[in-house]
Amino acid sequence: MALLPSELILNADGSIYHLHLAPPDIADTIILVGDPERVPEVSKYFESIEVQKKKREFLTHTGYIKGKRLTVLSTGIGTDNIDIVLNELDALANIDFATREIKDRPTSLNFIRIGTSGAIQPDIPVDSFLLSEFGMGLDGLKHFYETNEDGFSAMTDAFVSQMNWAAEKATPYVVKCDESLKELLWSNRIRLGCTLTNIGFYGPQSRNLRLVSSNTNLPSKLEAFEHKGMRITNLEMETSAIYLLANLLGHRAVSMNCILANRSTGDFSKQPKKAVDLLIQYVLERLHG
Length: 289
What we know:
Blueprint: E1 29-33, H1 39-43, E2 48-55, E3 58-65, E4 68-74, H2 79-94, E5 95-96, E6 101-102, E7 110-119, E8 129-137, H3 153-163, E9 173-176, H4 179-185, E10 190-197, H5 218-224, E11 232-236, H6 239-249, E12 252-262, E13 267-268, H7 272-288
Parallel strand pairs: 1-4, 1-7, 7-12, 8-10, 10-11
Antiparallel strand pairs: 2-3, 3-4, 5-6, 7-11, 8-9, 8-12, 12-13
Helix pairs in contact: 2-6
């Protein structure tokens, strides 16, 4: 059955609505970054760039590095943007735009987030790299999609109990990274962790400016959380949604975090741009072997 124009929204040139991309514009391996200014910081390592498109905060470069075709795309900040980006990237790969019908044989994409994050635990230093083995979402996105049991209900129950999580807030959910991408990108330079994704930077992360957060002392509570040896390692705003949607749509995803801040010690990186660049180089080296 053909998808209605109100559901699959295309621009006049046939591109997908928000990203302004056509199906040939993307590679099967897509690096996701938050900041549009980080896109050229990745693509500067490409040997050639064949696609450069931008709409709103969504900047896309597709090119080649050592013969491997890669796309790097900026998502902007937050799980709401991730909902747009991953659904539209999936549409580019798995919907025939001419007929508006879902393809019989789905294509599985690789999503690799290269992002910044704040550590929760005092033993995770700034400028270190962390691979999110698990993503725990406080954003509520899961509850807007039909999903099966994720197998991590005991962990979310423990979180709700230990944190005295308010009933009016979204029920947390947990999704695991893709094992094949984890194996590809992990080395002794990389820490493994459980990344907490929240829906905002200030109140949701217990920062107080002129408004007082209801998440009182969130970082210290997160530092103390433990479930069967699992602890929360870091805090950011996209990973859980990337893992959730990739899992539901049949794609593979992994999140690579450059730790720029430590909420427990109060430290912040003295050379954040250099630290992020080193993570970019590391990921690209692992991808092209």
